[in-house]
Amino acid sequence: MAEAKEGFQKGRVFSISAVHFVHDCYTSFLAPALPLIIDKLGISYGMTGLLAVIQRIPSLFNPLIGIVAERPVMRHMVIFSPALTALFMSLIGIAPGYVFLAVLLFFSGISSTLWHIPTPVMVKQLSGARTGKGMSYYMVGGELARTAGPMIILGVISWWGLEGTWNMMPFGFIASLILYLNFRNANFTPASSSRQHQEGSYWKIFLRFGSAFALTGGYTFFQAGMKASLTYYLPTFLTSMGNSLHYSELALTVIQLAGAGGALFAGTFSDKIGRMRTLLIISLAAPLLTLLFLSLEGFWFFPVLLPLGFFLFAPTSVMLATVQDLGTEKKAFVNSIYMTLNFFVSVMVYPIVGAIVDRVGFLPTFRTIAF
């Protein structure tokens, strides 16, 4: 597909973004359903925490998936992954035991990997010269799913009960059908070129872009500290300050919705002023707004949460565009390396933040992370 000639293919990019929303809604079903699952299966909190790890274990195989995605099979991986994720995640409510539930989550992690590694490459080729804009469209679907997914599954449980989660299955099949109709004849395999032949092994490509991976990994690490503080730990922090649980949930919803706006506009903005300048603005604005947020109380949280959420979630689309701009034909492989770094950073940062909170409390921890 000649991306430069065809320009920005808005319809196809939008269809991938819409299916990204559907796909990630399914992957966000677990956390809201956990209290009922714990009660049904009689499992401990330790075993519950292990479920999140099991679901993310397939991320360890991202580089292998990235190598496979360089072949024509990439199109089929993307088309079928929403249906597979819908199948596995819609069955969590009827899981008869812990092992069965763990197997469902493990396979949903595989199908999620099959979706998230190739799709940015497809968006890159469909976006022409406006890679940042394409990644913004792509990421807004995923960010909106973080807000909508929990509300959807709680509504389903309220209507049909925990065992009724299987009723959500058809929407993933419809999403796969939409992708099939749009991309069944598309070719996303890069045409053979002299540069492709000169690139050598995947290990050589990894070494060639080692400095870029170090830069993106380091940036992601410091951003992840603030993201963990103001998303994962936000409800706990606010309730510890004397706020109600509903108030805390509302604050989390506000910051995630604002984050969808950041994901939507940051990539497009980076097309105009450059990736590094955009990341620099974000890296200054996010910690300053975090410190302002920590100095406020009551209603005044919310006016600050809007720009804070915007800048907190803005880097992802810019980072994806940066990775796709690297001078290699092996776009899926370099994206898989970036996704693997994200996995290890998130696994590492969340317990570190929690451990520091245990020692010194929320406010000192969050302020230190912001600085």
Characterise this structure:
The chain has 371 residues and is mostly helical. 80% of the residues lie in helices and 0% in strands. The protein contains 20 helices and no strands. It has helices at residues 3-6, 10-27, 30-41, 45-56, 62-68, 74-90, 98-116, 119-126, 131-160, 169-183, 194-198, 202-208, 210-232, 234-240, 245-273, 275-294, 301-313, 315-324, 331-360, 362-370. Helix 9 packs antiparallel against helix 15 (245-273), helix 13 (210-232) crosses helix 19 and helix 19 (331-360) crosses helix 20. The N and C termini lie far apart (45 Å).
Topology at a glance:
Blueprint: H1 3-6, H2 10-27, H3 30-41, H4 45-56, H5 62-68, H6 74-90, H7 98-116, H8 119-126, H9 131-160, H10 169-183, H11 194-198, H12 202-208, H13 210-232, H14 234-240, H15 245-273, H16 275-294, H17 301-313, H18 315-324, H19 331-360, H20 362-370
| Biggest sheet details | none
Q: What share of the residues does DSSP label as strand, in percent? A: under 5%
What general outline do the C-alpha atoms trace? globular
| Total DSSP E strands | 0
Q: Are there runs of 5+ residues with pLDDT below 50, and where?
A: 1-5, 191-196
Radius of gyration: 20 Å
**What order do the SSEs take from the amino end to the carboxyl end, as H and E?**
HHHHHHHHHHHHHHHHHHHH
> Please, how many helices?
20
Fraction in helix: over 70%
